[in-house]
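Hi all, long-time lurker, first post. I run a small reading group and we've been trying to get comfortable going from sequence to structure in the token notation. Rather than ask abstract questions, I figured I'd post a concrete chain and ask someone more experienced to write out its structure so we can walk through it together at our next meeting. Sequence below, copied exactly:
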Amino acid sequence: MENEVTLRPALPEDEGFLWKILYEAIYIPPEEDPPPPSILSDPEIARYLANWGRAHDMGWIAEEIDSGKPLGAAWLRLWDDQTQGYGFYHPDYPELTIALMPESRGQGIGTHLMERLIEDAQREGYPGISLSVSCRNPAVRLYERLGFRVIREDACSVLMVLDFAE
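-- Answer (accepted) --
Happy to help. Here is the structure in token form:
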């Protein structure tokens, strides 16, 4: 990492940055134009942050130590049978959302964020974590390295789960 990075808990007052990073979490293949920022108001996307700070929400912000500049974030959110994210697996498994600002990718920050959330989820007693990722997203390799396995795959997305019992 070029600059020293620290992690701190994501707080309700970080919601503005979390919305910005949620936009970065939308995988866009290099040959495609990005969607307009208004995509964040789509209910399927907005549910990832709506009412941030509710019970069981947990997350971390990665930021430069010297400047305090936020570089990325990762968070876990529980769903139920009525409200689900793309990476829903089971109501007891929180879904992971993670993204970094483009200039902060490839420096180990995402691994650091994920390792912290995995520790948190284990400490909270969750049986595992789920996520959804585009099959073309290079982050699939990171998730596999951390122990996530493919549960379901379709033409454009992959549901992955990390089971703590395994």
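A couple of things your group might point at:
The helical segments are 15-25, 43-46, 109-123, 139-145.
The two ends are 31 Å apart (CA to CA).
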